[in-house]
Amino acid sequence: MDDQGLSIAYERHDRVRRLTDVLRYCLEGLSLEFDAFDDSRAKGPGMYLAVVAGRSIADHADPMGDNRWPVETCRHPLADLDRFYEAAADVAVRNDGAVVVSVDGVIQERMVRFRDLPDTDAGYADWMGSRHMSALDTSRRESVVATLTLSQETGRVTVFRDGEFDSVERDDLAARWRDTRE
Fold this sequence. Notes:
Layout: H1 14-33, E1 47-52, E2 61-68, H2 81-94, E3 98-102, E4 110-114, H3 130-138, E5 144-150, E6 157-161, E7 164-168
Parallel strand pairs: 1-3
Antiparallel strand pairs: 1-5, 2-4, 5-6, 6-7
């Protein structure tokens, strides 16, 4: 049976693109707000977000201990950007694991560890740590629209889609809006 015209291309859906942009800009803001990425003793904010379509991720993810997203602070990033940023800033320094956001924008309370894909030739970049390698692999899953990471070591922000990635180093974040005059 041909489902042409019946499936939703979430990666091109306006609301999902806006959601992904909001998530990315939040990670960029967290990166730019932290001033000690060059201090090896300082632990910067780090985060892993996954935008997913579908009913469940249970077949390829496990709960990440007691790590939880504070749904009482913000359950939906597009509903209140300030409260989302506040919650993300807290989670980025206190928790580990992936934050799961459904394509309708609802954040799941439980943070997860995504299981590795079998037999992948991922093409990892030299700068990638385990969070980024997982995000790259997870972005290849059919039910995943995008994954996003904030590196707690360097402040780099990366968006992964279908095994491809767009990564921006901290010094280049928001470069066109920053005043670069000395």
